[in-house]
Design brief:
3 domains; single chain; binds zinc ion; 7-stranded mixed sheet; globular; binds S-adenosylmethionine; 13 helices; Rossmann fold; binds thymidine-5'-phosphate; 18 strands
Length: 406
């Protein structure tokens, strides 16, 4: 069956089937098990614009809105990341009278807090009322809504044009991205910049990080596909910069054509992506084969450890772990519980796989033989915190870029 590209209308070819999946952030109370929403997680690539995208769509009202639990400011690393960028905008793009910045996906105000302290006019847009309340307590103004064409047109009418539109880890979540891009066109000033940060498909493919694919991450961006989507909406990609966050991201800067010089690194990224075969439908099946191999090896390892009487527990009830546990068929029989530092998850079950979540206090009571590190993007921090585990003979199991014990 041919699927139509959400960006350009071209033909999308499926290359990966991760099976029936739960919503990645639906951490259940035990009584709720069995009453979950699920969907087919399949991924394809457009033969025309090269955008990698999911083939189905989960209703945004099920994922976002009042029940959305993620709060960006929980991470000290991300707080510093956004403070630094906001400060840079204050010193450059937003220096001068009458400047206005809009953030798409402002969450709990992690980025706009610094802008508000700098007394610059701003507006966050985010459909999660509770996150918006937290942002407002920090002095941040928020419109509780989904950013799309209509919302942007309204903001333009009430606030005037934006000098900067910024969005981190949100645009890839919007199946209706063309509407959001038309909105950016309506709202951005003539010389303004649209700056977008998101996970990078190049890192996902190079390191077989298939668990970065889950309900929210509808698109997986490359420099080439972002440039193509931008061009279709009258924007030029003028800069691309690698970021170390979220296991490998890129910050893209878009502007109206000819208004800003294009940084030489855009061409360098495109050449590198061509060399990697990124965006080439012919190379994606090889990625899918590596994903299947990782699944088979992880299952075999966990089964062998279980059969030899070893205790393996999970570490980090991440959104990513929904994909891994469900796709690999890992349940409480193989991994009886998952340790997680976030109190709101304690006493709940992981989505789909229904593994109980326990506090880090339970980790040493007693230490397991092995810990399967679902939060691999926080490996340094967690391994340092839990160094007694390894000293006592415990071992970590990692599954990206390949299955191994350390
Ligand atoms: N920007 C923050 C960061 O990088 O930490 C938050 C990212 S969080 C993964 C995605 C955010 O986008 C959520 O707060 C969600 O409520 C919001 N969101 C989802 N759809 C949106 C839309 N159409 N317009 C604005 N925000 C949206
Ligand atoms: P996420 O990758 O979906 O944001 O989830 C990260 C999870 O990892 C979150 O529930 C908290 C957990 N975590 C720990 O348990 N210990 C830690 O030291 C860190 C950094 C995260
Ligand atoms: Zn396309």
């Amino acid at each position: 069956m041919t699927h139509i590209c959400r960006i350009c209308g071209g033909a999308v070819q499926q290359f990966l089937d991760l099976g029936r999946q739960p919503l990645s952030k639906a951490f259940l109370k035990p009584a709720e098990a069995g009453r979950e929403t699920s969907f087919d997680l399949t991924v394809g690539i457009c033969a025309s614009c090269t955008m990698v995208q999911q083939l189905g769509e989960v209703s945004r009202d099920l994922v976002f809105g009042p029940r959305y639990p993620y709060r960006s400011s929980g991470s000290p690393v991300m707080r510093k990341h956004f403070e630094r960028l906001a400060q840079r905008f204050l010193n450059h793009e937003l220096a001068g009278a009458g400047r206005f910045v809009v953030e798409i996906g402002s969450n709990d105000g992690i980025f706009l807090k610094t802008i508000s302290e700098g007394a610059v006019a701003h507006l966050g847009v985010d459909p999660c009322p509770r996150a918006a309340e937290i942002a407002e307590d920090k002095g941040v103004e928020v419109l509780v809504d989904f950013f799309e064409e209509d919302t942007a047109t309204q903001i333009r009418a009430t606030h005037g044009p934006a000098d900067v539109i910024y969005s981190a880890n949100t645009l890839s979540h919007l199946p209706y991205l063309p509407s959001a891009l038309r909105g950016v066109d309506a709202l951005l000033s003539e010389r303004g910049v649209f700056v977008v940060e998101d996970r990078y498909l190049g890192d996902i493919v190079a390191h077989t990080r298939f668990d970065q694919i889950y309900d929210e991450h509808f698109y997986l961006f490359t420099v080439r596909s972002v440039q193509a989507a931008a061009a279709l909406h009258g924007f030029e990609l003028v800069d691309a910069k690698r970021l170390p966050v979220h296991g490998g991201s890129i910050r893209y800067t878009l502007a109206r054509p000819g208004v800003r010089p294009q940084n030489i690194n855009v061409g360098e990224f495109l050449a590198q992506e061509r060399a990697q075969g990124l965006g080439d439908p012919a190379t994606m099946p090889a990625f899918a084969e590596r994903v299947q191999r990782a699944r088979d090896e992880l299952r075999t390892l966990l089964r062998e450890l279980h059969d030899s009487g070893k205790l393996v527990v999970g570490y980090g009830a991440t959104s990513k772990s929904a994909t891994v546990t469900t796709y690999c068929g890992i349940g409480p029989d193989l991994v009886p519980y998952v340790i997680d530092g976030s109190p709101v998850k304690h006493g709940r079950l992981t989505p789909g796989s229904h593994i109980p979540i326990r506090s880090p206090k339970a980790f040493s009571d007693p230490y397991p033989d092995y810990a399967l590190l679902f939060a691999w993007d926080h490996a340094d921090e967690i391994m340092a915190k839990e160094r007694e585990f390894r000293k006592g003979g415990g071992r970590w199991i990692l599954y990206v870029p390949e299955v191994r014990i350390v």
